[in-house]
Amino acid sequence: MTMPRISRRDLLPTLLVASFLAVGCSGANRNETAPPVMQSLDALESLGDNTNSPPPMGAAATASTATDEGTNVPQEGTFKVKFESTAGDFVIEVNREWAPIGAQRFYDLVKSGFYDECRFFRVVPDFMVQFGLNGDPAINGQWDRNLKDDPVKQSNERGFITFAKTALPNSRTTQVFINFKANTFLDSDGFAPFGKVIEGMENVDAIYSGYGEKPDQGRIQSSGNEYLKGSFPNLDYVKKATIIE
Predict the structure, then answer these.
(1) For 148, which of 64, 66, 142, 231 could close a Cys bridge (C-beta 3.0–4.6 Å)?
(2) Full-model pTM
(3) Distance between CA 148 and CA 152 in Å, rounded?
């Protein structure tokens, strides 16, 4: 199933049947296989260079009820995260005021080592790079807890990082994406940036994009890096993510 042509006004995340797993496929069969929740997307219009690029989406966000992790989180302050990756290092500065709930989840994930060895499994040139499915399915499952939505206070500009989500409210979990360019059309659909790349954006730009959207999120969840290493050996990945104290 491929994403139809997208308009700024009507852009919505894609959901797959039952498990809400987001995958990119070819345009030839989208109308044949689109599940009922996709039907409202079939008539979407063109959006510049992003005609075949669906919005960043999270996998396995099947419930719209968020956890209580969004309560009593710090509302202000910043922290930095250094990502050592096979494409080169980069540093993200997180601003809690922009999206405090998302910022705290990101902090907890990094602190736990969740992003270590995570592959950049969805890379769409001139759009965004998405990651955040752990290579160990057991660890990934432990963090599959939905977050309450943050209001969108910042725009999805180039280098800004945002949690992926589905069309359901409160569906953010662990997946994030970094914008390769200004994708401001995502703002109105609830994609709330919580930080930005302040060093090494050229290395983010260099992340391998040869596989596009071919890696299957369902397979990643069930088989982790064993599946990705075997089927997509050239994927770049996070070697280590560290909070800069």
Answers:
(1) 66
(2) 0.79
(3) 12
